[in-house]
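anyone seen this seq b4? input:
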Amino acid sequence: MRVGVHGEASAACLAKRLLHRRCLATLGDALAAFELLSCRTEQGFQSPRPLLVADNLGSGGIVLAASRADWHGLDLAQIEISLSVDCEPVVEKRGGNPIGNPLQAVVLLANHLAQRGLFWDPGQIIMTGAFTGVHHAKAGQRVDARFEGFAPVTMFVE
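predicted toks r here
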């Protein structure tokens, strides 16, 4: 029986072409998303880093909003963000991705993959990292995240 969920609001991008040297040019639509966290190790998120990596860093799934094709002119480093649980504000701020511009995470991922002879495929979802930090929602609650200029993402916890 599930009693709640841990998650974080994030921006995501969809790859439109195979990864190449100009990685940002391979990105298509962008969208708001929730990353659901579910650590399967005995010690949970307090586990040693190698165990967390083996557990896919606790990624248990994602919830996606409608995508937007014309997002490239938005300043993602300073985007306005709000997160609410049952219509009660939990986070309201501007910016908040841990490394500033979330596209830096996309470039770091592209470089990491290229060094290993790997790439992303068209249609693959690329998560950019949390903007709101981790929050818990209980069964029966509704969670909404709004990123300025994007369709909101909504999740109902069962």
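The chain has a mean pLDDT of 82. The helical segments are 49-54, 103-115. kinda curious what u guys think
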